[in-house]
């Protein structure tokens, strides 16, 4: 995958994030107050496309917004990040929405209403051509898995690498989908759900990642939050630690930032460890600011030496 200079094509979700600032997540049957309510552009597909574009890489987003007031807000936000929206479709009904409960520690709990992201999808000839001419295709799981699998088949037919961020729906990946994936990137919780194995220690994480490798992906990249990241291939394991930050403000979108930055670095010719370090730096900036898309760093904010 190194040094493929075609554009990055992201196929995925677009959401309006309603962020509630709370002291803690309410217990069942409990009502608590929120300090504030803010609306931010988000969705895993939109976040990853925006992250790549803000890092200066040519990026297309294939996605869907609704016919509500949020649609124009979301489109304007993506355009301001430099994302090409030639393949963003408008459908009837509401846009996707996420309700984010943000705690003082920066940790969050999220409830998603799929909206336009779950509407009927159609991969026209123009979209398929963009996929086939891409440097890489980046997917997540906030749109139907059958759409992701169809995209992956088109990409594989043209030799285009497919990266799947496992965030989104909590459901198994089909046996037919897994062999289409070049890089599968879960966090430790998603890894445990996909494999049914513990992920409490680094040895557990590596063992679970290797179990996934047996089902088809070429590499498994595990995002470990404050513990960094682990990349597992058939014959090697690479670990990169997280960078210290002054204060974690909001972790929303940090995983999306990491995945997108990792793919951008690979497309630009970095080796996997360098790409992990680049992605870790980008994510460390992201978590120090509020919001998902609004917290994504610009290229010039990253330290010198990355181009």
Automatic annotation (TrEMBL):
The note describing how and how many cofactors are bound reads: Requires a divalent cation, most likely magnesium in vivo, as an electrophilic catalyst to aid phosphoryl group transfer. It is the chelate of the metal and the nucleotide that is the actual substrate.
GO molecular function annotation = ATP binding; metal ion binding; ribokinase activity
Residue sites binding ATP per the record: 187, 223-228, 255-256
Q: Using the UniProt record, give the first listed, main subcellular location.
A: cytoplasm
Subcellular location per UniProt equals: Cytoplasm; Nucleus
What controls how active this protein is?
Activated by a monovalent cation that binds near, but not in, the active site. The most likely occupant of the site in vivo is potassium. Ion binding induces a conformational change that may alter substrate affinity.
What does the record list as GO biological process?
D-ribose catabolic process
**Catalytic center at which residues?**
256 (proton acceptor)
Cofactor(s) this protein requires: Mg(2+)
Q: Where are the transmembrane segments?
A: none
Q: Which family does it belong to?
A: Belongs to the carbohydrate kinase pfkB family.
Functional description taken from the UniProt entry: Catalyzes the phosphorylation of ribose at O-5 in a reaction requiring ATP and magnesium. The resulting D-ribose-5-phosphate can then be used either for sythesis of nucleotides, histidine, and tryptophan, or as a component of the pentose phosphate pathway.
Among HAMAP family, the record links this protein to: Ribokinase
Q: Please give the name of this protein.
A: Ribokinase
Protein's organism: Ostreobium quekettii
């Amino acid at each position: 995958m190194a040094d493929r200079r075609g554009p990055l094509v992201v196929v995925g979700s677009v959401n309006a994030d309603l962020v509630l600032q709370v002291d803690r997540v309410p217990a069942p049957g409990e009502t608590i107050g929120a300090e504030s309510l803010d609306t931010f552009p988000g969705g895993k597909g939109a976040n990853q496309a925006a992250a790549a574009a803000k890092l200066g890489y040519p990026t297309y987003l294939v996605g869907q917004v609704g016919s509500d007031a949020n649609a124009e807000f979301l489109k304007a936000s993506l355009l301001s990040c430099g994302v090409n929206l030639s393949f963003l479709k408008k459908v009837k009904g509401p846009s996707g929405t996420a309700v984010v409960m943000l705690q003082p520690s920066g940790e969050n709990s999220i409830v998603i209403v799929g909206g336009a992201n779950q509407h009927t999808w159609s991969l026209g000839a123009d979209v398929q051509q963009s996929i086939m001419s891409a440097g890489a295709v980046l997917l997540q799981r906030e749109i139907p898995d059958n759409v992701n699998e169809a995209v992956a088949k088109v990409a594989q037919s043209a030799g285009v690498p497919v990266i799947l961020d496992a965030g989104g729906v909590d459901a198994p990946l089909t046996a037919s989908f897994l062999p289409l994936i070049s890089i599968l990137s879960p966090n430790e919780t998603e890894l445990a759900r996909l494999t049914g194995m513990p992920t409490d220690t680094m040895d557990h994480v590596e063992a679970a990642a290797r179990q996934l490798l047996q089902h088809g992906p070429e590499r498994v990249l595990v995002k470990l939050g404050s513990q960094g990241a682990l990349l597992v291939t058939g014959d090697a394991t690479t670990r990169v630690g997280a960078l210290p930050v002054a204060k974690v403000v909001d972790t929303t979108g940090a995983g999306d930032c990491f995945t997108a930055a990792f793919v951008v670095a690979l497309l630009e010719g970095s080796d996997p460890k360098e790409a992990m370090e680049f992605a870790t730096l980008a994510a460390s900036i992201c978590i120090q600011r509020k919001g998902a898309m609004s917290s994504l760093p610009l290229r010039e904010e990253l330290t010198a030496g990355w181009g």
